[in-house]
Amino acid sequence: MAVRTINQIQEKAQFYQQPQFTVNQSLMYIDLITKKECSLITSASLPSNFTYFIPNYTSQKPLLCLDLDETLIASSFKQGGDEDFQIHVTYQNIDNTYSVLKRQYLDEFLLSLAEDFELAIFTYSIKQYADKIIKIIDTHNLIKYKFYREHCVRNKINESQFVIIKDLTRVGVPLDRILLIDNTKRVGEWQPNNFIWCESFYGDRSDEHLRTMLPRIKALGKVPSIYKELEKENEQ
Ligand SMILES: [Mg+2]
């Protein structure tokens, strides 16, 4: 573990006061510690030479992309609380400790959905952080694919604001057979017929949202077209 110097702490403090970009208020995520930002784009169409995240998806099951933070877990810098586990992340010579709470019913949720879907994590967090959490919460090795911040795109909406989008057309799975679940509505708005919004989890031990969502998600794993099914729902 690297030890933080006074200079590094001061640099970090300055960093926090000067966000590199501002996103829509529904996703107030300030990109502070990574230079590997997601691509800045101005058009939803893909370049002709684009390499899909999964170039050869051959599974018979549809792909379920699950957000991580505030969807499956809650994480904070707060120490000594009632967290389930802690992780230590060193990035650019700065150490951080995160206390993490698993959302209630998470193990059963993943086990049950793996019967109907291939599972992926699609997070705006950086790999160094997300991988440590996934390794602990994925006790049965059910998560086959992982997409991180560099897989998201930043859509410029005016001179100073960006919106983070999780563009499912980049994954390489037809829209009939892919679903995203996320606590941030904005990230799914390019493919609303492939998106289910879920309530945010901040650590409430009485939260039941994963359990209540499960039957609806499992049912979508069995339909001929997730896109058409949610299109019908969204038109009502
Ligand atoms: Mg989230």
From TrEMBL:
InterPro entries: FCP1_dom, HAD-like_sf, HAD_sf, TIM50. PROSITE patterns: FCP1 (PS50969). Keywords: Mitochondrion, Protein transport, Transit peptide, Translocation, Transport. Gene3D superfamilies: HAD superfamily/HAD-like. It is found in: Mitochondrion inner membrane. Residues 57-220 form the FCP1 homology domain. It is a single-pass membrane protein. Its main location: mitochondrion. Belongs to the TIM50 family. Essential component of the TIM23 complex, a complex that mediates the translocation of transit peptide-containing proteins across the mitochondrial inner membrane. PANTHER family: DULLARD PROTEIN PHOSPHATASE. Component of the TIM23 complex. This is Mitochondrial import inner membrane translocase subunit TIM50.
